[in-house]
Write a structure and sequence with these properties.
Helix content is 32%, strand content 28%. By secondary structure, the chain is an alpha+beta fold. Helix 1 (20-27) packs across helix 3.
Length: 187
């Protein structure tokens, strides 16, 4: 396993070309996709032909330091989802997005907070990141709670992208949270 990061209960690793089925299964759960696609699954060919190649290209682009990482429980090695720590495609490398998508079985167990905390620490202490940001739907209170636990600050309300207008609560738009290295050091 190409381990990227470990926490007390999780191992994050780089995805491989053989991991498409893990992503297909994750994205086929309507509850997981609720605030992303209105519950519609991601088509398997999109995962295989677009997502996996883009994930692997990201490791090349960012020297394996940033990207999308598979998350597994240390106890039993079950795949629980993924975490993301990466800049916008043409954005500066020191401004990165933090995010996650977890299977329902992993919800409510503190994994999103645990993995995100560890990624913030890595970003600010090892990777030279200046700002970490995260976005979610305004109505996604679960994700907003996690961002607040991480001492991230709500910085703006953002419009709903056209491809997400069918999502429950889309009329309320989205929210962006941020934390700088200096804020993280004080928290």
């Amino acid at each position: 396993m190409d381990t990227y990061l470990e926490t007390d209960r999780l191992t994050l690793r780089r995805f491989t070309a053989d991991d498409a089925d893990l992503l297909i299964e994750l994205d086929s759960d309507p509850a997981v996709m609720r605030y992303l696609s209105g519950g519609e699954p991601t088509a398997p060919d999109i995962v295989r032909e677009r997502y996996i190649p883009n994930i692997l290209a990201g490791y090349e682009k960012w020297d394996g330091d940033l990207g999308l990482f598979a998350a597994h429980e240390k106890d039993g090695d079950a795949f629980i989802g993924w975490f993301i720590l990466r800049p916008e495609p043409d954005g500066p490398r020191d401004e990165v997005e933090l995010g996650y998508r977890l299977r329902q079985a992993a919800w409510g167990r503190g994994y999103a907070t645990e993995g995100s905390r560890a990624l913030l620490a890595k970003a600010f202490t090892e990777l030279g990141v200046r700002t970490v940001w995260a976005e979610t739907m305004t109505v996604n209170q679960g994700s907003r709670n996690i961002m607040e636990k991480l001492a991230m600050t709500h910085t703006e309300t953002i419009p709903t992208p056209p491809d997400m207008e069918m999502v429950e609560g889309s009329e309320h738009g989205g929210v962006r949270y941020e934390i700088t290295r200096e804020q993280w050091e004080r928290s």
